[in-house]
Amino acid sequence: MEQILFYILAGTTLVAALLTVNTAKIYRAVVYLLIALLGIAGIYFQMNYDFMGAVQLSVYAGGVMVLLVYVVMLTEKVGEPIRRIAPFRRAIAGITVLLLMGLALFAIWKFDFQTLGNDSPVTVEQVGKAMLSYERNGFVLPFEVISVLLLAVMIGAIVIAKSKIQKNTDQ
Amino acid sequence: MIWIPALPLISFLLLGLFNRYFRKEPVAGYVGVASLGTAWVLALYTAWKYFFEVGLQNGQYVPFTPFKWEWIHFTDKLSIDMGILLDPISVMMLVVVTTISFMVHIYSIGYMHGDEGFARFYAYLSLFSFSMLSLVLASNIFQIYIFWELVGVSSFLLIGYYFVKPSAIAAAKKAFIVTRFADFFFLVGILMIGYFVGTFDIETLNSEGTIAWIAQHPGPVFMGLSVVTWALILIFVGGAGKSAMFPLHIWLPDAMEGPTPVSALIHAATMVVAGVYLVARMFPLFYHVDNGFALRIVAAVGTFSALFAAIIALTQEDIKRVLAYSTMSQIGYMMMALGVSGYEGVEGLGYMAGMFHLFTHAMFKALLFLIAGVVIHAVHSNLMKDMGGLHKYMPIASWTFLIAALAISGIPPMAGFYSKDEILHAAFEYSFIIWLTGFLVAGLTAFYMFRLYFRIFHNGTREYHHRPKEDSRAMTGPLIFLAVLTLTVGWVFTPFSEYVTPTRVPFHYHIHWGSPLVLGSMAIALTGILAAYFFYYKPTEYPQKVARAFGITYKWAKDKFYMDELYLFVTKRIIFDKISKPAAWFDRNVVDGMMDALGNTTVWISNRIKGLQSGRLQEYGIYFVYGVVVLIMVFYFLNF
Amino acid sequence: MIEGVSIQVILTFTTVLFFIGLYGFLTRTHLIGILISLELMLNSEAINFVAVNKYLHPEFLQGAVFSLFILALAAAETALALAIILQVYRRTGSVDVKEVKELKY
Fold this sequence. Notes:
heterotrimer; A: 2 domains; B: mainly alpha; two-stranded antiparallel sheet; 6 strands; 71% helix; globular
């Protein structure tokens, strides 16, 4: 049962991703991305990692998507198809990517993984404790670093995106 | 002891570095005179103590090494030391150098009066004195070489003193290049000896142990001569360059471009005898190795140079040139004397005579040059045709010149008689031909010297549009002093063999007044003087007739046997055109060409591949992916 | 862990997703299109971390917590990139990739 669910979710995600990278209209690409993200959130839920799934939905599907839509609206005549590069070049890129993908898959299927069967769901409490713990497996440092990073990004985004200040030339 | 060379060094540094503070003229001169005067007194004191008090122990003069400092250490025995070695010849040279230098310093106060670079002149003179004194005091042959070069530099600076005259610059360059060329051989000789024998120290080299060792280990033989002989010959070549022996003599006449005090100091009395001093220093080696083969070469070169120079001196018109060739001839005598010398006891006569001649020659040759300076100063010309009848205007110069000319011709009781006679005696014991040449040269010397004397100071009377006079006491004082020395040194220090001998053991020798040799040499000297008297005391037609009689040979002699032209030909046509030009072409086109090609190729390659950086982000992404693929392939297929 | 699905299947899934994203990155001409492909790549990585953590070493939390960081980072980066794209649009009036070729030789 779980298997079938997984395959449906995975398939949806992959199809959506393919459509994302291939459509001609930018707004559609954003929407397909949203679908892909929803699929990924579902897989998180399936892996008993509820917290991550929730965060994915709220941050990504909620925040980032909105941002993307916003900027898309701001920039272009939204309905027009975007330029595509020549099919020859697309083929070259496709072949390159397939090549590397082939290698990666080859590596994955050749390797002998030792999977352990038992696992427990990862609760919010565990994540929270890990984030703030000082011991060997604690994540307090990356936590603090991320907060500084977010601050920097906020300031940076404001500085970069603001328009020119109008100078008061007379009076 | 170390103060003797150190004092001129200090005055050189003082005058050289603080040149601009010595604008008021005589101060620089006084500094120089003071330092040299003190050095002179110290040298006399050293000589007194050495020769008469402490030097003679067990019947032999002992060398003192009051100071030795190891500078560069090669192996246990081989090192370059800086030291002071006192033995009879070095002490004698100290006296000679300081005396002449002191006289020249005093003289220059008058001669260089009013010249712009007065302080500079004295600085260079001090530098020269310092280097020459350190050279004679050296205890290590490499140290001799170092100060040898320094003396060459001082000579260069002093010859080129009037550096705005192109002829002076050319002369300075010529002197330096020729001596430097000879010094190359000198260096090779030193290195050969140092490598083969294993030491640079002079006392060790001259010791009996080393000589016995060399006799037992002849080493590789090249063209029949052992290594050490070749090294000694090369060392002699270096000495020959500095002492203006044939064929390296070409720089000496041109060096007369320098101021006359310079000629007196350097090119008459001190620097040019450095070669003689060198041979005398290494005399035990020269004598013993390979049965003294190197010594025979010394004798041959010396004799030939003496004759060659005397012939040219007969024809020259410039008084300084005559004196220069005379110097070359007299140095030839000294080399000849060393060459024919034996070693033990009375056989060491040649050595002793050569050094004695060096001693006396310094006195009267410096005197002659200084007088020439006074005359040139008064008449404002170097050429004999502008002179004549100066006897009544410049009596001091005239009488002192007469004394010096008698000395160089070998008339007793002047100093020159004793030394020249002893040389001829030693030559006679050795080889008839050498004696005959020396004998003839003595006659020629007398002739050309008195030619000079009569044409300058007599030769009828002559009106000068401004009256020549001997003005400055600074200039005439040294003349009188040196003349007195010339008169007395001869019979005071005879027999010189009490002091200077090859083995350092004094022997006794006295002139046999009645022997045919002595009478013969006096006779030929008097013949020369009388001939000159007839030719030149009054203006006559004789000189021109004799010159025409000699025809083309006269012209050859006057043109110095075309040695300069020969050298120019060799250097310009052969070395410059055939060797230097192709080398320069090679350097420019091939060596530089390769470098340029390297650069140009790099630029060409970069022009071709700059398209890779297109600015398009996605292209970079593709390169990235390809790179990862390649790396994975490489690691997978090569490492597993 | 999901029963019945071996790790290799999940890893295959994430790999394919990643490479789809990569293809889009190399192929798109619209700046936001490139950004979207970047999002796909980052998300696939996040799932990869969580999967490996859950399947191979379930007693640790590294993978899970780290995915949170990846998420935060991706969001921040997207925000910044969009700010830049807005500036580019303001200066040149279009959002095509050929507007940003300044690093050309």
